[in-house]
Amino acid sequence: MLFDSEIDKAVRSGTPLTETAPWKALEAHYGELGAVHMRELFSADPDRFDRFSLDLDGLLFDYSKNRINETTVALLADLARASGVPEAARSMFAGERINWTEDRAVLHVALRNRAGSPIVVDGEDVMPGVNAVLKKMKGFSEAVRSGEWLGFTGRAITSVVNIGIGGSDLGPAMICEALTPYCDGPQVRFISNVDATDFVEKTRNLDPAETLFVVASKTFTTQETMTNANTARRWLVEALGDDAAVARHFVALSTNHEAVEAFGIDPDCIFEFWDWVGGRYSSWSAIGLTVALAVGFDRFTELLEGAHSVDRHFIEAPLEENIPVLMAMLGIWYRNFFDASTRAVLPYDQYLCLFPAFLQQGDMESNGKSVDREGQRVDYQTGAVVWGEPGTNGQHAFYQLIHQGTEIVPCDFIGVINSHNPIGDHHRKLIANCFAQSEALMVGRTATEVIHELLIRGLDKEEARVLAPYKIFEGNRPTNTFLLDRVTPRSLGMLVALYEHEFFVQGVVWRVNSFDQWGVELGKVLAGKILGETKNLVTNGDAELSHHDGSTRALIERFAARQDND
Ligand code: F6P
Which residues form the signal peptide (predicted)? Predict the structure, then answer.
């Protein structure tokens, strides 16, 4: 039976999660450790870094600058165990239907299963299908990159435009940006927003005869993507003067064959995937075609291999030494016991500039939920707000709040040892800042240190006393640091998979379904209605708006009355 852990049983028999023994033990432990400063923990334990860091295939995870001791790790592991994390992980890898509100398996791990082992869903091994699509992606990406695939007028493809949104955009866009040093194929651009400005600016200066549109949409019904795809088709056909051009300039990545064919894309140009691939977990599927076009299929394979090595680690390593489990449980420690409502992801590598935006969807669409497995509203906090910017820019923008604001913001620093652009001492400066920030957040600066410094600077005792409170840093602000040797397809694949499993573990413990996203539906439905009403108002001067609240009605009316470009 799915989800039949000790905690599931307790909850079903009326004990709320927050009243179960593992949760209560953490609560009591928080009472003892919550006020202890990490400075003390470091000075009491010279081996703290060794104790609280792990190396996975050259990727270092340093979690020593957290408000934890060995008891914390043991208690967090107890909670994970009692929540059935290992069993749930095995169910996911075995293709069980763990997405219970959509009655689907969750098998992004099958897409990067390099072990050759079968994964069975509904009595059928999905791996032959996965491998067939990978083979097709290889063939197509190589044909485009070599110039063998020609556009309608006989010219080779020099530009690829990915049209998609959410998981059909954020993953491939982030990966292409992160792997810029490996991009040796056609230039790639990404159109996602239904705002025509996105289309206009991204197609500016493109030659239609040399442009390939990759329409990426699991459902092939998403309003933004279909609007952009239709505009792209018009743009192309107007330029090349023939509907038949679509066949050489459009491919689709989708689970919805019928809709793709109805759009007019050649069935041979459909790269399929399956309903057991969630949008935000889909970069490993056909949705990665744009990545393969940009960096080549071999490097795309390395990305899959990196993720696969994390999958092995996740399923095999004991909970206490399991990086995604530790990431997840530390997140729960701060979210539920320290009341941290946000978390920051801070990459110190310009190529990872889109990583925070990518994680926003991964984390917030997965765990921004408030109803549990029993259909009950939870009475504890779940997913935190994810935000971040690349270092060092963030330091000059929002780090002030992380250092001295009223709320703890747990941070993930992502540092890279070797830059792809080793010019002068740029990289050493960048990394010095990365290490300095996590150190400053941990140690802080005491009143005594501040006053001493002010006196040395020549202030008198009274002046120093008045200024000191503003200059004190409490410190004790938790951070993780990931240190990669270099941003490569493999290390990037590892990093993404670590976070994916982190979301999974948190969802299991919080007892929410990390794989649906019903919360985005209402806005979509209302947008459809308002679209029709606005059109009626503009064209006929009349629309039934009385069912809207006063604010929405007034906004629609003002828009219809004042817009001049319909
Ligand atoms: O925003 C909701 C959502 O369904 C995401 O989960 C998904 O990644 C995105 O829309 C795009 O969906 P599709 O790939 O079906 O166009």
Answer: none
